[in-house]
Specification:
Length: about 475
């Protein structure tokens, strides 16, 4: 029940924060909520009393992820104006594993995931309805700000594409396996929602999301073979519906009304990412293999001429190059190790499904969502934007829970060890203390972000550069070197 409640909170804030009547901007609200969620999820499962009969494999995933977690924590050893991002990444991955372990011990895991899919589907449907309403207004206004009308509630359409990467595979699974899929009317709404999200994706030319989804779908079909056919059928039908909607709503109707829709067609190219990637690559080699430190992308002197003379953003639109530049290639190696550990467990669970010929529709949506996001992260800040991380936390928690479900053939009741309970509670207390200090830094950084916005506007810039906050510690660095 706790996971379903968190699902409602995360989807509400990720998709609809722009509608909340609060005194902070929606991007900051999403960041505050995300940090609170991962902090709570990191220690609450550790202080729960262990039930008799729980498997001794409960925290086995931590062994594979421990080097990665230590690598992120080591980011605190660097000098930095604000110490926020290393702990954010640490708590994110730590919380998904720990909370996933808790979820894995649930007696009704599949029902919980089915309810999670229902939350995802209904939230996505409401979002799509608002997008359709905005579309009608955009037509009346002559197609002005068409991208913002469809991909609403985000800093720009690229941040919406992060959400689409996580959500679209879930909608294909939800059409068949959500807790509400037994109702024909709800199933139709979920199908419409999936088609609408694909329509927005095509209309905003979200190329990174499209590539990630296609690669993820191929990987999912390869892993589960025939067990994934039902999911693949729903995925393909929703995609075709979205494509037809794009032809009708985005191309045909605007062309009929205004005589042209060329500005709304699919776009190609790298959108200026190559100079950013080259800059991040050169950064990663300066202090190989340890990196320049957290947020050094914001404060380092430009290395390449193309970056110095081009557009400068809060991140290089590639999470892996960003981590390599700031935390070093050592962290990338630990990330590969963690991925190998997850793949090893995935292989074992996959065999269970193939041998028993079980329907993999539900879990295939989770796997495809994860793979798609990891692929998309190579061309965008999927693991930086707070809305994306809120949904990503739910998806990764579900995946790690599935990977850690105890083997039904192992009926041995593990012995309860006092030292183990004390160790877990000690880790929980350290997480609580670390979180309190972390939130102090977060608030201090937020105050600096408010100052930075005034400086940025004073330099004649109207658009912010999102990273941890909508804008932070960026203009003060480049004001001196006239880099803005």
């Amino acid at each position: 029940m706790l996971f379903v409640t968190l699902s409602v909170v995360c989807f509400s804030v990720a998709l609809f924060a722009a509608l909340f009547p609060v005194n902070v901007d929606y991007y900051s609200l999403q960041r505050f909520v995300f940090c609170a969620v991962i902090w709570l999820a990191a220690w609450i499962p550790l202080i729960e009393k262990r039930r008799r009969g729980e498997s001794d494999r409960k925290y086995s995933m931590l062994l594979w992820f421990a080097p990665l977690l230590v690598s992120f924590l080591s980011g605190e050893l660097y000098g930095a104006t604000y110490r926020v991002e290393p702990l954010m990444f640490f708590f994110f991955f730590f919380a998904t594993i720990v909370f996933g372990s808790r979820l894995a011990q649930s007696d009704c895991f599949e029902l919980t995931v089915a309810r999670f899919l229902s939350v995802a589907a209904l939230s996505s449907f409401v979002y799509a309805l608002v997008a359709l309403m905005n579309y009608s207004f955009a037509l009346l206004e002559g197609l002005e700000n068409f991208d913002f009308a469809l991909a609403w509630g985000v800093p720009n359409k690229r941040y919406w594409s992060h959400l689409a990467t996580w959500v679209i595979p879930l909608l294909a699974a939800a059409q068949k396996k959500s807790s509400l899929a037994s109702f024909t009317s709800i199933k139709v709404l979920i199908f419409i929602s999936g088609g609408a999200w694909w329509w927005i994706l095509f209309s905003t030319s979200a190329r990174g999301a499209a590539i990630g989804l296609i690669v993820g779908a191929l990987v999912g079909v390869f892993i589960f073979r025939k067990s994934s056919l039902e999911w693949g059928r729903c995925f393909a039908l929703q995609l075709l519906t979205g494509l037809a909607s794009w032809v009708l709503l985005t191309l045909f109707i605007p062309d009929l009304l205004y005589g042209s829709s060329s500005s709304l067609g699919l776009k190609s190219g790298t959108s200026g990412r190559i100079p950013l990637w080259d800059e991040a690559w050169q950064m990663s080699l300066l202090r190989f293999p340890v990196g320049l430190g957290p947020q050094s992308w914001l404060t380092h002197p430009p290395i390449t001429d193309a970056y110095a003379n081009g557009k400068q953003f809060g991140h290089p639109h590639n999470m892996y190059l960003l981590w390599a530049a700031e935390y070093g290639w050592i962290l990338i190696c630990t990330m590969v190790l963690a991925a190998l550990g997850a793949a090893r467990k995935l292989r074992a669970r996959r065999l269970e499904y193939l041998v028993a010929k079980r329907d993999a529709t539900l879990i295939n949506g989770i796997v495809v969502s994860t793979v798609a996001a990891c692929v998309h992260a190579s061309v965008s800040a999927v693991f930086m934007a707070p809305a994306s991380l809120l949904i990503g936390f739910l998806v990764l928690t579900t995946l790690f829970a599935w990977l850690q479900i105890p083997d039904a053939r192992n009926s041995r009741i593990p012995q309860q060890y006092r030292w183990e309970q004390r160790f877990l509670r000690t880790v929980a207390m350290l997480s609580i203390l670390l979180g309190v200090l972390w939130f102090g830094e977060i608030y201090r950084y937020y105050q600096g972000n408010l100052v930075d916005r005034s400086v940025y506007k004073g330099q004649g810039m109207m658009l912010y550069t999102p990273r941890f906050w909508s804008h932070g510690d960026y203009p003060r660095q480049f004001k001196k070197s006239s880099g803005l």
